[in-house]
Design brief:
There is one protein chain. Strand 6 (188-191), helix 5 (217-223) and strand 7 (228-233) form a beta-alpha-beta unit. This protein folds into 2 domains: 1-45; 60-284, 3-Layer(aba) Sandwich (Rossmann fold), CATH 3.40.50. It contains 7 helices and 8 strands, in the order H-H-E-E-E-E-H-E-H-E-H-E-H-E-H. It has helices spanning 12-16, 20-45, 139-154, 171-180, 217-223, 241-250, 270-284; strands spanning 65-71, 74-81, 92-98, 121-125, 159-169, 188-191, 228-233, 254-259. Helix 3 (139-154) packs across helix 4 (171-180). By secondary structure, the protein is of the alpha/beta class. Helices cover 31% and strands 19% of the residues. The longest helix has 26 residues, at 20-45. Strands 1-2-4-3-5-6-7-8 form an 8-stranded mixed sheet, sandwiched between helices.
Length: 287
């Protein structure tokens, strides 16, 4: 017996010894989780590639003009919808629309096509690998597609190239911001859009540097000279409202409108949404 009256078997090192295998086991499980996430993350960001059957053509898209965009990753589909009830003899303004990651251009909610009733042509752009489009979606290939879509649209004689807006929903906001960093857009409408995609990886217990799809909308918005309308649900469970606030704060001419809605519900009230958009257009884009 030693002078302290305690046995050497009670030392802290020996008491910790049985925990060491458990700690190594937890580290191993976490590393395995990171490997699974790394392999699966593109599938998580672009789940629309798993939609193998396209729905029947919606009536509000029946008058579409199908455009096949030739890009380095292959041919990608886009639909150009003409404005309604306006004089088509003069070039019209246009909106390039990027949809959510679990949608196709076929299934974009009809409520988002209201720009057509306001004299705008609407270009619905597909992502590589979605629907009948070739290629594989990555931030680089998506950006290439949207640049090609913009250049194709701006070259048309029936489109006013100086009045092209960008509107994106969720992932579509990332695609539109990637375009805005490389082409001149008159304004941005971002619905349920993240400030940066890498930071969302933390919800899966992964560090932000782990993300391969590095969309940084906040940084693009900070360099954007035009007006930015940000619409977001207050109960968004996928992209917290703080992301919308970050985008608005970064913008030189930012405006935030919120709705009592979850991520996929926003905007829950399209009538109110278009009142907000009309006010935005009138105050920010009317000469």
């Amino acid at each position: 017996m030693n002078g302290s009256g305690s046995s050497s078997d009670d030392s802290p090192v020996l008491r910790m010894a049985p925990l060491v295998p458990w700690l190594f086991g937890l580290v191993g499980v976490y590393l395995m989780w990171l490997v699974i996430l790394y392999v699966a993350q593109r599938s998580m960001v672009y789940p629309g590639t798993r939609i193998h059957q396209r729905p029947p053509l919606a009536e509000d898209r029946a008058d579409r003009e199908t455009l096949w965009l030739d890009t380095p990753s292959g041919r990608v589909e886009a639909w150009l919808l003409p404005p309604r009830g306006t004089d088509l003899t003069t070039p019209s303004p246009a909106v390039i629309l990027g949809h959510g990651n679990a949608e196709l251009i076929d299934t974009i909610p009809g409520g988002f096509l209201g720009f057509r009733d306001r004299g705008y042509a609407v270009l619905l752009v597909e992502y590589p690998g979605f629907g009948d489009s070739a290629g594989r979606p990555t931030i680089d290939t998506v950006t290439e597609v949207f640049i090609t879509a913009y250049d194709t649209l701006a070259a048309r004689t029936d489109i006013d190239a100086g009045r092209i807006l960008g509107m994106g929903r969720s992932l579509g906001g990332g695609a539109i911001c990637a375009l805005a960093a490389r082409r001149q857009l008159q304004g941005l409408v971002l619905v349920s859009t993240f400030a940066d995609l890498p930071s969302l990886s933390r919800r899966y217990l992964a560090p932000s540097w782990f993300a391969t799809e590095r969309y940084y909308n906040e940084a693009v918005v900070a360099d954007f000279d035009g007006p930015v309308l940000v619409a977001h649900g207050t109960r968004d469970e996928l992209i917290p409202l703080d992301h919308a606030r970050r985008n608005v704060t970064a913008a030189a001419r930012g405006r935030l409108v919120t709705y009592d809605a979850r991520h996929d519900e926003c905007p829950v009230d399209f009538e109110r949404f278009w009142r907000d958009v009309d006010q935005f257009l009138a105050e920010e884009l009317t000469p």
